[in-house]
């Protein structure tokens, strides 16, 4: 393993790794449908977007669990009811190192990613670690 190459991968952008989670939810989307999509895609969360694809909030598995614990019927809640607004999206041109720092500081497991003002998906810590190591080892990253 070449530790210099692995260290240099920190400066690579996340543009090539956003394909791992391209889920996006709409404001009015049904809560149960969201839960099923998160589970079937093995995704810990996904951004909520407006009609133009602009980021407006984020729903994680934890938000769904909180709603269930509060006795809410997932068939009667929407993404707007479940989402949190504490996330700020990063861009596809954010470096891996910057994304890691944002996640660590904010204690987020994933971050929404925008390109050209449109939310294109999100990245997880797992995505970042995998990309960083693969790039450092000179392996091609494929979404």
Written description of the protein model:
The chain has 143 residues and is of the alpha/beta class. The chain has a single domain, classed as CBS-domain (Roll), CATH 3.10.580. Helices cover 36% and strands 20% of the residues. The protein contains six helices and six strands. It has helices at residues 3-8, 31-40, 61-69, 79-82, 96-106, 125-136, and strands spanning 25-26, 45-49, 55-60, 90-91, 110-115, 118-124. A three-stranded mixed β-sheet has the order 1-2-3. The two termini are 23 Å apart.
Short description:
The chain has 143 residues and is an alpha/beta fold. It has helices at 3-8, 31-40, 61-69, 79-82, 96-106, 125-136; strands at residues 25-26, 45-49, 55-60, 90-91, 110-115, 118-124. The two termini are 23 Å apart.
Features:
143 residues; alpha/beta; CBS-domain; 3-stranded mixed beta sheet; 20% strand
Topology, pairings included?
Layout: H1 3-8, E1 25-26, H2 31-40, E2 45-49, E3 55-60, H3 61-69, H4 79-82, E4 90-91, H5 96-106, E5 110-115, E6 118-124, H6 125-136
Helix pairs in contact: 5-6
């Amino acid at each position: 393993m070449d530790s210099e190459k692995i260290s240099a991968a920190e400066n690579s952008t996340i543009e090539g790794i956003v394909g791992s989670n391209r889920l996006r939810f709409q404001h009015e989307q049904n809560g149960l449908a969201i839960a099923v999509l998160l589970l079937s895609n093995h995704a810990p969360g996904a951004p909520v977007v407006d009609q133009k694809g602009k980021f407006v909030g984020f729903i994680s598995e934890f938000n769904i669990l909180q709603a269930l614990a509060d006795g809410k019927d997932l068939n009667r809640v929407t993404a707007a009811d479940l989402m949190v607004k504490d996330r700020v999206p990063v861009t596809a041109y954010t470096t891996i190192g910057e994304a890691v720092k944002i996640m660590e500081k904010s204690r987020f497991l994933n971050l929404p990613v925008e390109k050209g003002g449109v939310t294109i998906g999100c990245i997880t810590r797992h995505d970042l670690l995998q990309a960083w190591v693969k790039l450092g080892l000179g392996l091609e990253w494929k979404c």
